Amino acid sequence: MERVGILGGTFDPPHLGHLILAETARDCLQLDRVLFMPAGEPPHKQGQTISPIRHRLTMTRLAIAGNPAFQLDATDAHRPAPHYTYTLLPLLQAALPAAQLWLLLGGDSLRDLPTWHEPAAILARCRLAVLPRPGAPFDLSSLEQTIPGLSAAVDCLAGPAIPLSGTEIRAWARRGRSLRYLLPETVRRYIQQRQLYQ
């Protein structure tokens, strides 16, 4: 059975934190591949300005180009809104009927899981691979009270994690700060050439 990781998100822009999470999960769980899935209209970003999907898809493609186990998947980008994870997973299961799926999350996303739409439906379709994130502790036992069965569905990953976010990167870019070493050089150049986040 193929072992597949799913890393969704806005990817505005994709940065080293995303790549570290994906590679840590690939290594720890012996995943055959990790699908990077930019969301077309992320539900939790309602009312916020996000870059057009064409830029986010291109930046993600550039970010993962050096790793043969990483693949860009535009399923979530091109389907009708709203872009909820629980409605995405059946599409992936239909496309990958023989695969075991892991949803890759940072510790902050696991902590916020009770606010997601239909978290129990998510757990029914995949496991969760979670990389703890500095400054974002989570308590599995208290989360279990809100989402029964969560603890048994979580694989905690051991690996490096950096407190980096797209929000911070965009703010630094607006202030004219250097983005070097925060994201792949190809992505940094793309942002610079197209004057994104100015």
Explain what you see.
This protein starts with a strand and ends with a helix. The chain is built from ten helices and six strands, in the order E-H-E-H-E-H-H-E-H-H-E-H-H-E-H-H. Helix 2 (53-64) runs antiparallel to helix 10. It is globular, with a radius of gyration of 16 Å. By secondary structure, it is an alpha/beta fold. The mean pLDDT is 94. The longest helix is centred in the N-terminal third of the chain and has 14 residues, at 16-29. A six-stranded parallel beta sheet has the order 3-2-1-4-5-6. It has one domain (2-194): Rossmann fold, CATH 3.40.50. The protein has helices at residues 16-29, 53-64, 75-78, 85-95, 107-111, 119-123, 140-146, 150-153, 166-174, 185-194; strands spanning 2-9, 33-38, 70-72, 99-106, 127-131, 154-156. Helix content is 41%, strand content 17%.
